[in-house]
Amino acid sequence: MTLTEKALQLALTAHAGQTRKSDGTPYIAHPVMVAFSLQSYGFDESVIAAALVHDVLEDTDVPRQALADVLGEEVVQIVEGVSEDTSLQWEVRKEKYVARVATASVATKAVSIADKIHNAESVIAYHATKGKEAWAVFNRGKEKKLWFENMLYTEVSKTWEHPMLERYKELITIMEDLEA
């Protein structure tokens, strides 16, 4: 199997039965869409594989070593770069995430921004059907959600140039205009 196939298989198993909090769709669709986006921009297989498993360490019980055994250290380092320390208070956790991603490798930045793009697209689509109640799925609501998105965009833009950042900013602007 290729690295991408191994990552997809691992992601399917790890996320089995999980759904997205925003719309209840099978969770696996999210990492697949993130990986597809990165593939369309020509990123290499290690980045695509990391995209497929980017939430595995944070949101499942798969241990780091198991991920490394299947996909290797390069992929795991990318995944660790986009994983949050959920033991921290929300604002602190988000600030640490932004600081880490802004100074991380291009691969980590790419997975992070592709992830946030798909999340933003999902919020916008969910808002189109649910209206302002779409913001209720976020513990801190619209204001803090956008605080985080703008902070990430601003800090990553200081250290990286890529067309995905333009798309991310467009989506942030759209979210800012959505009813709260």
Order of helices and strands: HHHHHHHHHH
Helix content percent band: 55-70%
Number of helices, where a helix is a run of at least 4 consecutive DSSP H or I residues: 10
And the CATH topology? Hypothetical protein af1432
Number of strands: 0
Shape: globular
Strand content: under 5%
Distance from first to last alpha carbon: 46 Å
Architecture (CATH level 2) name? Orthogonal Bundle
Overview of this protein structure:
The chain is mostly helical. It has a single domain, classed as Hypothetical protein af1432, CATH 1.10.3210. 68% of the residues lie in helices and 0% in strands. It contains ten helices and no strands. The termini are far apart. The mean pLDDT is 96.
In short:
The chain is an all-alpha fold. The protein has helices at residues 3-14, 29-40, 45-52, 56-59, 64-71, 73-81, 90-102, 106-130, 141-157, 163-177. The protein has 10 helices and no strands.
Labels describing this entry:
globular, about 0% strand, Hypothetical protein af1432
Give the helix/strand layout.
Blueprint: H1 3-14, H2 29-40, H3 45-52, H4 56-59, H5 64-71, H6 73-81, H7 90-102, H8 106-130, H9 141-157, H10 163-177
